User: Fold this.
Amino acid sequence: MRNIILRVGILAVIGVAVVILRPFIMGNAGDLKLGECFDDPGEVQSVEDVQHHPCTDPHTAEVVFVGTLSAAKDAPYPSDAQLQTMVGASCIPAFNVYTGLDFDTDIVWTMGYFTPHAEDWGNGDRSVVCYATRIDATATSTSIKKT
Assistant:
């Protein structure tokens, strides 16, 4: 009986630690949720994991949209220009609503995004994660979400 109580206690401590520490651990970029803050990995070809942060701690990016790109399941992988058009159609309006700012005229913020690799696209994945980041790439310790 004592062993069962000890095991349950250990599992409870692990569960609480995961909930408390989630904002501080690395996580898959595709699993980001609206409003989460993290460190922008910069201009790299492929991103798997990102460093999460509470939005009150220094961070360089905040998720403003999580959704699906409007492309047919059998559509070929888009060119860079086509991808930017699809992303812009979803992310710019979402940025404006989330922040209360106008993306087209704002001089402080820009956006980045994560989209599927060609192989995942070929398997029907059309997910997109759009995030706000400062144009000067400096960190902030506040959320960009309008209050």
User: Anything to note?
Assistant: Residues 2-21 form the longest helix (20 residues). The mean pLDDT is 83. The radius of gyration is 18 Å.
